[in-house]
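G., before I forget:
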Amino acid sequence: MATTPISVTVDQIFILLRDWLTHFLPETLRPFANVVLGVVAIACVFPGLFALTTVFERKGLGRMQNRLGPNRVGPFGFFQPIADGIKSLTKEDIVPLNADAVVHFLAPLLLVVAVFMGFAVLPVGRNMVLVDMDAGLLFFFAMGASTELSIFMAGWSSRNKYSILGAMRAIAQMISYEVPLLLSSVTVVMITGSLSLTRIVEAQNQYTGIFPHWYVFTPWGLASFLMFAIAATAETNRTPFDLPEGESELVAGYFTEYSGFKFALFFLGEYLGMFSIAGLGATLFWGGWSAPLSILNFVPSWIWFFSKDMAAIFVFIWMRGTLPRLRQDQLMNFAWKFVLPFTLLNLMVTALWRFMEGGWLRWVVCSVILAGAYVLMGRTAMHRKHFGPRSYRYAE
Amino acid sequence: METWLAAYELRAGGSIRRIALLGEGIVKGMLETAKNFAGSFVSEERLTTVEYPEQRIPTAENARVFPFLVYDGPEWQAGLRCVACQICEKECPPKCIYIEKSKDKKPDYVGKMQIYPARFDIDVSVCMSCQICVEVCPFEAIKMNTEFELATDDRFGGLLLDKEKLAQSNEYYHKIHPTEASEVDARLAEEKAKVEAKAKAAAEAAAAKAAAAAAAPKPDAPAAGGD
Amino acid sequence: MSVVFYALAALTVAGGLGAVLLKNTVHAALAVAVAFAGLALLFLSLDAQFAGFAQILVYVGAVAILVVFAILLTRASETPAGGVFSSSWLAGLAIAAGVFAVLGWAVLGSAQALPLSAVAPSATVHDIGVALVGRYVLPLEIVALLLTAATIGAVIVALHEKERTR
């Protein structure tokens, strides 16, 4: 626990602030006001982080590519998002003549709404969840599934072949990687025994000596986390899975016909999706808001959560700077032939872990099974595909 | 680095072959970009950006952009080497040089009276920096400049350089192309020395003749005059 | 019967009507997705969290996408030339009225058996899980078998054919 009174105060400072602000209101309005304040906080913090991330990404990518990023606007270029925001707000909003105007308008709205909803169940700090739901994890994934519909709406309404192709590829990719994403989260649910994210964090907030009980430090947790990370990268259309929006492939995929503020909304939705799924990964595997060593408990819990979130974002940026894009058939093969079988095996290994009570034996057995499976399945994933003329079973 | 990520396979026959582990390439790649990222803060070779216009890379000695006219001495009008022979105007492929000859003459570097250009315009928006004008000039009068920041917002005359804008001193020429300028100076000095030697020889011959004519008896005027 | 219920019911019915009456097929599919979402919200308003979120995850996130893909990959995306209403609409109306009558009789009959209680029965995820692997394990396994059959069928349809010698 956070020990000294000062550290407890700093840890709970936002809760105390909210309580102070709402105690001016009558008793009946207080829950409503609590929720409104929480929503306002989320709506201010995460887009602010988004603005910072855009500039960090450009500068980080630049440094990885032996060049500077933007450095003209503001000190070291950190006012660049303001310039970008003004630019996207003042651009002409072009809707193609043939486009389906209503659906074209609603698509970015649906994306942003669905992504913001996902933040409602993330425990950002101790006692700091907007809505503490019993089935919080399920809610998060339900909101993630709604984003696919918005991508289809964007691609379809543009009446443009590049948009349609990009939308179909994006949806195929997102559906393929959704199953491993859920299956790797199910292992955490199995061990914790609850779908509620606050319960999952509390289960990881225990220490033996100074080391935490984070799930990533267990063999099944590490495997789950790796698969979760791959699936999360694919869900948010990040390199190396960014074929749907790659500029050299499909113009801009389903974004093609969007300009100005709607494009900025799509961009915002994508980055916020990154934040929320990184936050979910931190919550499920890296202990959420708990400190890495029990002696570091004096640091506020929300600082730990955001550090883990930002570290995950840095790894996303790092991977973007390193890896080339996967082709559509390569990423589909990878999903169905490697990631999914591995997650299924991992599910069974987690069950094995659960039923082999304690001790060093379960560590050894589970690690050996998972490592062996990784090496063996990895070899099939490394096979080169030989292309020949295709024959169609039903077309002739 | 390679060995600890490897997986080994025992083949039939007892040989061990190292197989590639899935994800090995990714890890190696990420380490390389991490080196780039960290190194870009400390070392020059990992961050090769030159922040123009605050920093500039010095131009190479043989760089060439647009031509300029060389003049010797302090006065550009008097020392301009160009004698308006119009060879460069004729040889210029895009015909960007325009020359008008003068009516009077002025002395050149060896003292001979030459005409000079009353008007010498180069339209640098047309010039293609081919250096043919430099190659054909017999008088080492036109050379290539290295200045490239000539952007202007005057679309009608901003890039039309006249004689005054084109004239640069020999010292400037030494500064931008030291080796070339030294060679040119050496050649011109040699020419001048030859001309002076010839003049001196001619003067000596004339003086010797005059002295001989003065010393020798005068038989008849027409015979001495026809000599 | 609160305001929330009426609003959600209106949303669901509007989605259903849109699915039937809209001429553009894709708009109709999106209206069906709205109807699904309305149903999910109704479940949530009844405190059935698992059912509500599973409804969104499965229906909006998968079934609606499936419908949309089916429209995309076939030529049903063009408005049919013969109009959207079938010629045998009288028979359709009769059958729909019959089904509605049966459903209404079942619902009203059950409403008398179970009075409107103020306290909703608790159905936490844990209870649902226990019931699924305890009492309802046979339906669960049958559904799993069905899904396996569907997956194998999908793989067979999409299978790369071996080289056939012509």
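Residues 1-5, 221-227 of chain B have pLDDT under 50 and may be disordered. The CA atoms of residues 221 and 227 of chain B lie 10 Å apart.

More on Monday.
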